[in-house]
Amino acid sequence: METALPVFIYVTLAILFGLLVMAVTGFLGPKKPSPEKLAPYECGIQEIAAPKRRFPVKYLLTGMLFIAFDIEIVSFYPLAILLHQLKLFGLLELLVFMAVLMVGYVYVWRKGAFTWE
Amino acid sequence: MFDFMNNPTVALIVATVVKGALLIVILLTAFAYMTLIERRVVAKIQGRLGPNRAGPMGLFQPVADALKMMFKEQMIPSQARAGIYVLAPVISVVVALCAFAVVPIGNNWSANSGVHSIWDPFIGDINVGLLWILSISSLSVYGIVLGGWSSGNRYSLLGALRSAAQMVSYETSLGLALSGVLMWAGSLSMVTIVHRQLDMGIWYICAQPLGFVIYIIAAVAEVNRAPFDLPEAEQELTAGYLTEYAGLRWSLFQMAEYINMITVSAVASTLFFGGWSLFGLTDGIPILSIVIFMIKVAFFLFLFIWLRATLPRIRYDRLMRFGWQVLLPLAALNIVITACTVALGGDRFWWISGVAGLLVVVVMLFAIRRQGILEGTHFSEVETGKPVLPHSVRLVTYEQEPELEQDEDSAPSVSQPPLARNSNTVQV
């Protein structure tokens, strides 16, 4: 707690700074809105249709892959830190872990999840 | 007068508030002058002058820019979701500032690793320091995605999506590359990692050359800098997620990007270049350690600018392939090499993993030159044999080129279909 307290204080300071800037943006500067000004930027032409709030499923797939791999990596950190003490046992454990991870990786690769068309 | 400082908790809070405010001011100043330095350096590299009118050598340019930005009109586009639109830049910049909390900027004032004072030049030495930086900096994707999505503009949305996919893709390699350092250090605390490097007598770049290369590539992609600045690819997406932002809100996004750059550089110098240490030069003079740390960070910041001025932007499908199919396996290989050295050898055998890592880097460079790993993009060939650009980069439907046999005399250079260079083979 004694070591974490400064970090929390600093985070509070950063948030205060952010809120201050957000408040300031409202006051400074002129305010002369017009329909043309508020229209979404479309390279000077009139917008034909509102942007669909849908996106290619590929992005979602990448996000899911990220979750799978990143959680594996985070769960890998404690092992990495303790490797000094675990010696050979830790190494074998790590290699097994890596092998399992690589099986999934190769599967995802062969399925074409990394190929963007 | 300073009686309240006798209470240790109150003293800690006061010291942290002072140090924190100072750090925020330093980061903001560094951001402001980073923009100037970047414009000047890029101008020099491109044979231009750059901004040199405001003050001597253009030193007041950041002030002029800031004033201009502050008094620009702030509006909320009619299609935007107002609340999120306003909040997104703030999220970006708060997150960027927070990540710096655990970076040790210099040695303890007593220059003795056992003696701590509340005024030591870092905010907090928490035992999960590196994890804090990784987790906080992965939050920065929220600011970008929310900003792009809430703008109600198709360019913003596309830029935000690209940015999200890119950042998460390179974050895996980044995290894996850093775990090599963790194996040597045996701790997540940034302060301890620096002291471990002092104990071992080497910088971890010597034991982790491969990890360092992977980290620096992934870091450039993480902060959306050229050549990985796809989210802001101005030829395709106007300005990406920044399209609908102006004035101070736009500066907040820029601020977040530059502060992230500073954080990434600070982490690189702390983990791989011994932080504030320089061959025992800082013994007894703690203030010198801060200067040395700043020089190291400045070197990496210069590297970022250098890269931006030198390299062209990489195409999106290649970017994703490079992240997942080249960097990630290399990072895994780095871990296996390091783990074998640490578990079987110990501290004295750091050079084994160093040499092995260096070998992999060299082989990697030759492989990229010979085989063209970046070139092997697959294109869907339809029955007619006409080359088709990937969906992710295709903007218009590509029609078959008209045959130009008759005009060969008048325009011989046009007879080549413009997409023929996108074949799978590479001429060396």
Oligomer: heterodimer
Largest interface: A-B, 72 and 90 residues
Q: Any low-confidence stretches of chain A, pLDDT <50, length ≥5?
A: none
> What is the total number of structural domains of chain A?
1
* Average of the residue pLDDT scores of chain B: 79
**Helix run count of chain B:** 13
Q: What portion of residues of chain A is helical?
A: over 70%
**DSSP, total strands of chain B:** 0
- Overall strand count of chain A: 0
- What count of structural domains of chain B? 2
- The amount of helix of chain B comes to 55-70%
Ends distance of chain B = 75 Å
Strand content of chain A: under 5%
CATH architecture of chain A: Up-down Bundle
Largest beta-sheet characterization of chain A: none
Radius of gyration of chain A: 25 Å
Family (chain A): Belongs to the complex I subunit 3 family.
Transmembrane segments (chain A): 6-28, 59-82, 88-108
GO molecular function, one term (chain A): quinone binding
InterPro entries (chain A): NADH_UbQ/plastoQ_OxRdtase_su3, NDAH_ubi_oxred_su3_sf
Could you please describe the fold and organization of this structure?
The complex is a heterodimer of chains A (117) and B (428). Chain A is mainly alpha-helical and 117 residues long. Chain A has one domain (4-110): Methane Monooxygenase Hydroxylase, Chain G, domain 1, CATH 1.20.58.1610. Chain A is 70% helix and 0% strand. Chain A contains 3 helices and no strands. Chain A has helices at residues 4-27, 35-38, 57-110. The radius of gyration of chain A is 25 Å and the shape is flat. The model of chain A has no long low-confidence stretch (mean pLDDT 80). Chain B has 428 residues and is mainly α. Chain B has 2 domains: 1-71; 76-371, no CATH class. Chain B is built from 13 helices and no strands. The radius of gyration of chain B is 24 Å and the shape is globular. The N and C termini of chain B lie far apart (75 Å). The chains are: A mainly alpha (117), B mainly alpha (428). Chains A and B meet through helix 1, helix 2 and helix 3 of A and helix 1, helix 3, helix 4, helix 5 and helix 10 of B. Chain B: One of its GO terms (biological process) is aerobic respiration. Chain B: Residues 401-410 have a biased composition (Acidic residues). Chain B: Belongs to the complex I subunit 1 family. Chain B: It comes from Dictyobacter arantiisoli. Chain B: This is NADH-quinone oxidoreductase subunit H. Chain A: It is found in: Cell membrane; Membrane.
